[in-house]
Design a protein that fits this description.
An eight-stranded antiparallel β-barrel has the order 1-2-3-4-5-6-7-10. The N terminus is likely disordered. It is elongated and about 65 Å long. 10% of the residues lie in helices and 70% in strands. With 212 residues, it is mainly β. The chain has one domain: Porin, CATH 2.40.160. The protein starts with a helix and ends with a strand. A hairpin with a 4-residue loop joins strand 6 and strand 7. The protein is built from two helices and ten strands.
């Protein structure tokens, strides 16, 4: 009996996903959250502790069927208690185009966007008071493909190669105290692709569709 109920439930999800559409006017919500912690022990004594958290919310609206315009943001905080603190903050706008794969509930999509990010890293060279600090501002255009599956009319799971193509401008300022503070500034334009490092750019996420 339980197997029959499970089969009926699974079938109902498939049927609803097969008929799901991303209709004009739908609200597009989603994001990712993650964290990590690591301890290093030497002779049974904790010698180093590292922790990090990242949050990436997304909101948008379908301006046409299967076409979403939206904004995204990101916060990434990382701390190594002995040496390094790294924080980054980002925001951007994006346009995403979906294409149904028959009536399977699967979609392929292409997303392009304009993004900006502010990155800071401060490194203390213990036990001396010397510290190194780096501040970077990024502005860039990005594009990547992905695939999405409609579990229901309102919930999609997706994966893709984030920032597969990237064109960006970087302004970097680095200050080093050794012991006199010296400053190094760098401005650069970069064009890059993660094709040669696809595994690290692969992501998993979810999206909610509300209102239509």
């Amino acid at each position: 009996m339980k197997k029959i109920l499970l089969f009926i439930f699974t079938l109902s999800l498939f049927v609803s996903s097969a008929n799901s559409q991303i209709k004009k006017g739908s609200i597009f919500l989603g994001g990712d959250i993650g964290g990590s912690t690591q301890k290093t022990k030497t002779d049974g004594v904790t010698s180093d502790k590292q922790s990090g958290i990242n949050i990436s919310p997304v909101i948008g609206k379908a301006i046409k069927d299967n076409l979403v315009l939206g904004i995204n943001a990101g916060i990434n905080l990382y701390k190594d208690e002995n040496t390094t603190n790294t924080n980054s903050y980002s925001a951007g706008v994006f346009l995403r185009k979906y294409k149904n794969i028959g009536t399977s509930g699967f979609y392929i999509f292409v997303q392009g966007g304009l993004n900006g990010a502010y990155y800071t890293q401060k490194r203390n060279v213990a036990p001396s008071p010397i510290s190194n600090e780096t501040k970077i501002i990024f502005v860039g255009l990005s594009a990547y493909p992905g695939i999405s599956y409609a579990i229901s009319r309102k919930l999609h799971l997706e994966t893709g190669f984030n920032n597969l193509l990237l064109l960006n401008y970087r302004n970097e300022k680095r200050e080093t105290g050794d012991p006199v503070i010296s400053t190094q500034k760098t401005n650069a334009f970069n064009i890059s692709s993660s094709l040669n490092n696809a595994t690290s750019s692969l992501y998993l996420g979810f999206r909610l569709l509300i209102g239509k």
